[in-house]
Design brief:
The chain has 486 residues and is of the alpha/beta class. The chain is built from 11 helices and 22 strands. Helix 1 packs parallel to helix 11 and helix 3 packs across helix 4.
């Protein structure tokens, strides 16, 4: 087979941001998309997709850097894929995100929009995550430059190959972007406040000193597999250690070490995960110390009322508490409640949005596919004295029909917070049929939100748009849209 010739475009000026963390340039009428660049960079680009009107590539060399660039604060930037925009000032990040929302809604939504409200930025742009999961592995990912140095020092398994990992080492960190079986050894991560880094390092050092095996992702063996850390604004901390198999003689000493070394940890658990995937949702964590859960607090901005949420090791909860508070307050304002409304909270998760609205509505009906989530929602509603809330387990697109609304009440307000794929087409048609006066659509993906808004435009007009930045230094963006019946 004839090998396709590589195409390299030289000294291309990056012109604009193109959403999803990519930038773009225009070359002879063709749009070229690329990652790891920002507008103002001058680069050589190697294409890996080349169509008639567009292409995709990656930068081979930088001739000039954009004047907008700043020095990233994390030593792992560019290797770890977690914070792609550290090289941009935060104000610039917000400007790009605002632009992404507006352009996406106009291009895909194809409906009239009001003036967008300015994006709500984060007060804290580092240490903002309340949940983080680290992976322990015997397979280390090394960037090409580091691998060459390791190869020269005979640290690699097979010198002279293009391999970019070292086996039979012990590392603790994050999966390398796009590589399922290799882990980046993290020194300090700026996503979660201390003692997050200290706990990870202490567990790693203890395991190394006592010759614990680290998990081999490719061959599916090894004892120490991961650690999940949850930290609340209340000061409560949860540590859940993940093991590949049950070995009480090694598990108990490590748990006891963590308990003694970090007295600030309020609950300590461990989970045996012998599956091929990392999901913990179908597993039962075992409580070693504490109550097995932690409590988080959020405030409504209108009256300063505090809501409390019980969070277990498998609970879904927005990972940026401070910005979730901002997001939920936007939803409350957009719902325009007077105390007489029946509110449907679709894709409700553990019910946090519905609970946040519960004191101002006559009735809340939440719907969620995962039974454990609706149980958590019911418990959180009772704890917050929201007695008018009901949470139903089921597929939103299947159970939300005329019979369902006849049973639980005609909706006055519908809140929809679907996953990235957006709402199922059947649910869009159901909302159109119900004719609820107000729909508040919360989305983590402006593209699928715009698609659904286009479908809803048959009966609904977009009346308010509010972007919220939940994840600083990333290209991810949350957006809230209010729609009213025409």
């Amino acid at each position: 087979m004839r090998k396709r010739k590589s195409i390299i475009l030289e000294k291309i000026v990056v012109e604009d941001y193109a959403a999803e963390g990519r930038s773009l340039a225009r070359v002879d009428g063709k749009v070229v998309f690329m990652e790891n660049t920002v507008p103002g960079d001058v680069v050589d680009v190697k294409l890996f997709k080349n169509k008639k009107d567009w292409a995709e590539g990656y930068p081979l060399a930088f001739h000039e850097y954009s004047k907008d660039r700043i020095e990233p604060f994390c030593t792992h930037f560019g290797v770890c894929g977690g914070c792609q925009w550290q090289m941009l000032p935060y104000t610039q990040q917000l400007a790009y995100k605002q632009k992404q929302v507006e352009e996406t809604l106009r291009r895909i939504g194809k409906t009239e929009l009001p003036e967008l409200q300015p994006i709500i930025g984060a007060r804290d742009t580092i240490f903002y995550r309340n949940k983080l999961e680290y992976t322990f592995s015997n397979r280390e990912f090394l960037p090409p430059d580091e691998f060459r140095l390791a190869e020269q020092a005979n640290m690699a398994d097979t010198p002279g190959t293009s391999n970019d990992e070292r086996n039979s080492v012990r590392v603790a960190g994050f999966h390398a972007k796009g590589v399922y079986d290799k882990v980046i050894d993290i020194d300090s991560c700026f996503l979660q406040a201390e003692p997050s880094n200290a706990i990870r390092k202490a567990v790693k050092n203890f395991a190394q000193a006592h010759d614990y095996s680290f998990y081999d992702i490719k061959h599916h063996n090894g004892l120490l597999r991961g650690v999940q850390l949850r930290m609340c604004t209340t000061g409560q901390i949860m540590v859940n250690l993940i093991f590949g198999y049950d070995d009480r003689q090694k598990i108990k000493p490590l748990l006891e070490f963590v308990r003694n070394e970090f007295p600030e940890v309020t609950t300590l658990l461990y989970t045996i995960n012998s599956k091929w995937n990392d999901s913990l949702n179908d597993l039962v964590p075992i409580v070693y110390f504490g109550e097995g859960f932690i409590m988080e607090k959020m405030s409504a901005d209108s009256d300063g009322f505090d809501f409390h949420f019980k969070i277990g090791p498998t609970s879904f909860f927005q990972t940026n508490t401070a910005q979730a508070e901002q997001l939920y307050n936007v939803v409350r304002h957009f719902a325009e409640l007077t105390g007489t409304e029946t509110v449907y909270d679709l894709y409700c998760g553990t019910g946090s949005i519905g609970i946040f609205l519960g004191r101002e509505a006559r009735k809340i009906v939440g719907v969620e596919l995962i039974d454990a989530a609706t149980r958590d929602a019911s418990e959180n509603a009772a704890m917050n004295h929201i007695n008018s809330a009901q949470f139903i387990t089921g597929d939103v697109a299947r159970i939300c029909n005329d019979e369902f609304f006849d049973r639980y009440g005609k909706p006055d307000v519908i809140i929809s917070d679907p996953p990235r794929a957006g709402m199922h087409a059947d649910l869009v048609h159901t909302i159109l049929d119900t004719g609820a006066p107000i729909v508040v659509y919360v989305s983590c993906n402006p593209a699928t939100q715009a698609r659904d808004i286009n479908l809803l435009a048959e009966r609904y007009a977009v009346t308010k748009v509010q972007p919220v930045d939940m994840f600083p230094h990333t290209h991810h963006i949350e957006n809230v849209v209010q729609l009213k019946l025409k």
